[in-house]
Amino acid sequence: MSDPKQPFGPRLVSADSMHDGPLRVAVVGYGYWGPNLTRNVIERPELELAALCERDPARAAAFEQRVPGVPVVSDLDRVLEDPTVDAVIVATPPRTHYPLVKESLEAGKHVLVEKPLATSLEEGFELVELSRHSRGLLVCAPHILLSPTFRAMHACARSGRIGDLLSARARYGWAGPWWNEWFYERGGGSLFDLGVYNVTTLCALFGSARRVTAMVGTAIAEREVNGRTMTVEADDNAHVLLDFGNARFGVVTTGFTMQKYRSPAVEIYGSEGTMQMLGDDWAPDGWELWRNEDAVWQVHPETDPHWQWTDGLRHLVDCIESGTPTTTRPEHALHALEIMLAAQAAGADGRARQIETIFPEPVFGDTLLATEEAHRSHDRRSHDGV
Fold first, then answer.
1. Per the domain annotation, does 309 fall within a domain?
2. Domain count, the chain
3. Do both 108 and 153 map to the same domain?
4. How many Å is the Cα radius of gyration of the chain?
């Protein structure tokens, strides 16, 4: 296993990977990204959908009906052997991420992988090490660091406007999916699907966590999925306590056990003030700021209501075209994975775990989209704001 604290620098695209013309992208797995293919790939002039890799006949047929003319294959090797395919989107159940990402990186492709990076720490280490030497870039979901709202809160925190960060709470949950069994099978669960957003958010603000303990379990033993009853094998309810050192703590509340909520997604408490993210960290709706010296709540409306949780694809393309390092780093995804695995283990035996991995401070470069001033947006429902 690699040393989790070995030095890391920004991963730049290699000179021979610099790209002219549309980036040809292959998608592995239609179910997760299916509804977003048109908006995120097909309608974007800088991208070209090269192929879909899908083994499920029903999903393959649905794709062929929606997007005629694009090849559908069942074997990833056919995609990886195609020299015209530049990048691969891995949008399959978590238990398949490791082999698909590994094969794609070894084939020299750029890779965007859904969360989590892998389902074991050993696999995660191997993928991060491979990404440091591969020809292609690796961008890992979730992409919450790219949202304008998160970037504004991160800048506020780093500027010291609320003093030292001391405590935090984050939550994301809902009643749970009913369309695919893998959410409730081993390798799935609410932490990997939902809690990963909050873990990624809090660590991006506080830095690498040092210790984790948690209550993690299965509250609803059976679920109705695809019209049949199944036994739940993964966690669906979790409270995770993060220790960032120096008595700085954060808690993540997540699960397929929340019907509705009306509260901030993220609360950050500093020595001189408070920040609160509205909406969810994967779908923010602005943020609020309290500073003791101002003694008023400042409300910052959402500046980009059309920002999508799939924004990592745009970021990957921008970094390839400009030759700049990515803001979302594989080391951050590995750190989140270690935390979630440690939380699951702590939920089973009640013992806290030390966290060994670390990740670099996010760097927000010129590849991130600038947003219009809030007062210039008349109709937030339209794409042009007018």
1. no
2. 2
3. no
4. 21
